[in-house]
Amino acid sequence: ILIAKNILNLFFKINATHFIFLSSGKVYGDMKSKKININSPKIPRNKLGKSKLEIENLIQKRFKEEKNKKFSIFRIFQVYGKNQKKMVIPEILKQISDIKKDGKNELRLGDLSVKRDFIYIDDAVKIIGDSILDKENMKNQIKNIASGYSLSPKYIAKKLLEKNNLKSKIISVHSK
Length: 176
Known about the structure:
By secondary structure, this protein is of the alpha/beta class. It has five helices and eight strands. The strands form three sheets. Strands 1-2-6 form a three-stranded parallel sheet, with helices on both faces. The protein has a three-stranded mixed sheet with strand order 3-5-7. It has a two-stranded parallel ribbon with strand order 4-8. Strand 1 (18-24), helix 2 and strand 2 form a beta-alpha-beta unit. The protein is elongated, with a radius of gyration of 20 Å. It starts with a helix and ends with a strand. The model has no long low-confidence stretch (mean pLDDT 91).
């Protein structure tokens, strides 16, 4: 939060015109049964969500009186990409590769029922880029960066196993 305050102070000191902040879907907290939109209640449950929300509020407060300066806040959800090492999708892909090599019949994951919104890194970058490069329509903005589809690890694993013509058991292991 202190770093964000210092960056904001520097932004105003150098007379920049557009402030961009990458926030997190964690500002909404755990909304398991509801679809999240920009107006959903923000009830963060962890340090990341709480600090991101505090910084968002700080930004909005600082820009309230500014007419010639704009801000963009992008709340990014679960991002995945080609060279990602840890997270559920790379873990599933690694285990599928191991199944193909070793002939094992089990794919082991953590909680199989929790649903998350996954967005590919290239799609997230395109959305952000298009939003900040549209100078004609530039205004203060807060956007959720997500695919709009909530998927469980079990569903993703099942689809990736099918795509690879594999029939393996998907097992929940609490330690993962």
